[in-house]
Structure formats: C-alpha cells, structure tokens
Design goal:
Elements: E1 9-10, H1 16-19, H2 26-29, H3 39-42, H4 44-57, E2 61-63, H5 71-74, H6 83-98, E3 105-110, H7 124-141, E4 145-151, H8 154-171, E5 177-181, H9 195-202, E6 209-213, H10 222-231, E7 235-239, E8 246-248, E9 251-253, H11 258-272, E10 276-277, H12 285-294
Parallel strand pairs: 1-10, 2-3, 3-4, 4-5, 5-6, 6-7, 7-10
Antiparallel strand pairs: 8-9
Length: 307
C-alpha cells in the first residue's frame, strides 16, 4: 500500500533522548560526542536497535538519524566531508531495522541546522547548497519521503523546501514532503511567526503535510492544531514532546506517561482530523505502543476548510 493511502500514519519517537539511555561505546564517538549522526557510521548496531524498537512498537514511519547531518552542522565536528556517507548509512540503518516489516517507511529527516537566515547567521545560497547536498544523499539512498522538521524560521523552511522540490524535479522523483514547524510557548516560532502566517507562507508548496513538532508537549499545541484543522487543506502532522521538560535532580525529564500521551494524540485525531502522529523529545517505544493501541479503531475527523 502506498503510504499516501493510509488513513493514519504513526511516526516513531525520539532519537536523541533515547540514545542517551543506550549503551554506546566511548570509541564510537571518536572525540565527536554530541554528534548523534556520526553513530550511523561508527555504531550502526546501536542505531538499528533504536529504530527496531520503534518498528516493534508499531511505528509506520522511521525518521533517519540525520536531523543534524547537513554540512553546516557536521562542520562543527570536522565532518563536513562526510555528508553523503553519514546520510547514506542512516538510510541503510533504518532499512535494516525495518527488514521485511510491511507498511513501514523511511523518512529522510532534515533539521533547521544551527544557523537561521532571518537572524543573519547564513545567506540564502549557502543554506540552499547545504540542504541540496543532504537531500541529494537522502534521495539517492532511497528514502520513501522527506520531512523538513523543527522549523524555527520561515525563511529557513522556505529555503529547505525550495531545495527539496527543485531537486525532486531535477531527478524526476515523486516523494511526499512533510513540513513541520516548532511553535514555542510564546505562541510563535523562534523568530516570531505565528501559525496563521506560517500556514499562509507554506500554502504554495505541494506539501504532503504540515504540522508541529518539538518545543512543547501536546497540551500547548491544541490551539495551533485547531487552526490547521480549519485552514490547512492537506494532511496535518502532530509530533510533540513528551510534555514540557522538567529538571529533576539535575537531569532533564519529560512528564507524560504513555497513556497520557496517547490520550492527547487521540484527541487530535478524533476532533481535529490529524492523520500523522508521532513523538519528539522524550517519547519512547512505550509511547508509540500506547499510541498504536489507542488509535486502532479511530478514524480522523472530517475537516471543513475555511477559505
């Protein structure tokens, strides 16, 4: 079945926070600790085990471990020449974890990098080139779809999406493209854009979906998801954190239990017509398992789009 035909798509959970709980040999970091993407090359068994845990929990979409695998980010670790190798290995690791599991897809993940063009950190051409390079690697390695996520700056999102659709046209490849922005507790993206402006800005792109991820838990996403349900004509995604982070005994913790998380997400599907759901920071395979169970007999609500 084509992934577009699934009424509900369940995306996996967190990468970084789960890796923090796994046993990773010191030698795998090679003095590049903090660069999770490097582990695609040095500890593929660890990355595959993480992916496999979400496949076994019922996830239908695995995001590649490539959130920071653009040259702009990799350069901070002296790995800017390893873009193709790291992204290619990431796709291979996800494929290995899926094995022959039916209806399970690989999404090439592209994060916001560490430089925002609206704040003058980087120019259009340089950011476009970095995204194009990463996109070429992910598409060449055989991803099933692309997700430009954790968008903090609408100019950054537009550059990434222009690069994506330019390259797909050049290669004559048809892949679904998801866009996912991050709305802070202030009610806007980091550079001040609200959900209405973001929706209007991204409307011209032929996106598979638009949605939210990271920054907050599901409770703080309700008004934004409600807006999308009435104003965004395509599919909506919602991939929140496991609640707002709390510091307990010096360690960052996320409060929502799997059952609480699943309840929030079911509300989004049943009441707002969200049809792509998953988890960001803090979410574990247990959260995915609870989500799969909660949505077993649920159909996304019909939506009426305002002109």
């Amino acid at each position: 079945m084509d992934l577009k035909q699934h009424p509900i798509l369940i995306v996996d959970g967190a990468c970084g926070t789960n890796l923090q709980e796994m046993e990773i040999p010191d030698t795998a970091w090679d003095d590049k600790e903090g660069c999770n993407e490097y582990l695609n090359l040095t500890a593929p068994d660890v990355i595959q085990a993480l992916h496999r845990s979400f496949v076994e929990a019922g996830a239908m979409i695995l995001e590649t471990n490539t959130f920071g695998a653009a040259s702009i980010v990799l350069a901070e670790y002296g790995l800017e020449e390893q873009v193709d190798a790291i992204n290619g290995a990431a796709v291979a690791n996800a494929r290995a974890a899926i094995g022959d599991t039916p209806h399970c897809y690989v999404a090439g993940s592209l994060g916001p990098t560490t430089k925002l063009p609206s704040l003058g950190h980087i120019g259009y051409d340089a950011l476009y080139a970095a995204y194009e390079e990463q996109l070429r690697s992910l598409i060449g390695a055989g991803v099933d779809l692309l997700i430009v996520e954790t968008g903090q700056d609408m100019l950054q999102m537009k550059i990434a999406l222009v690069a994506a659709f330019d390259l797909l046209n050049e290669l004559n490849v048809d892949l679904p493209v998801m866009a996912s922005i991050t709305i802070e507790r202030t009610g806007t993206m980091l550079v001040g854009t609200d959900i209405a402006a973001a929706t209007a800005t991204l409307e011209p792109f032929p996106l598979f979906s638009l949605g939210l991820n990271c920054a907050t838990g599901p409770a703080d996403m309700i008004s934004h998801v409600r807006y999308l349900s009435h104003h965004w004509p395509q599919r909506i995604s919602c991939i929140p954190n496991q609640g707002l982070p709390e510091v307990v005994d010096g360690k960052t913790m996320y409060p929502l239990s799997p059952a609480e998380y699943a309840t929030h997400m079911t509300h989004f599907v049943k009441d707002f017509g969200v049809s792509i759901v998953g988890g960001c920071c803090g979410t574990t395979p247990a959260h995915t398992r609870a989500l799969v169970a909660a949505l077993a007999d649920v159909t996304p609500a019909e939506r009426s789009i305002s002109s």
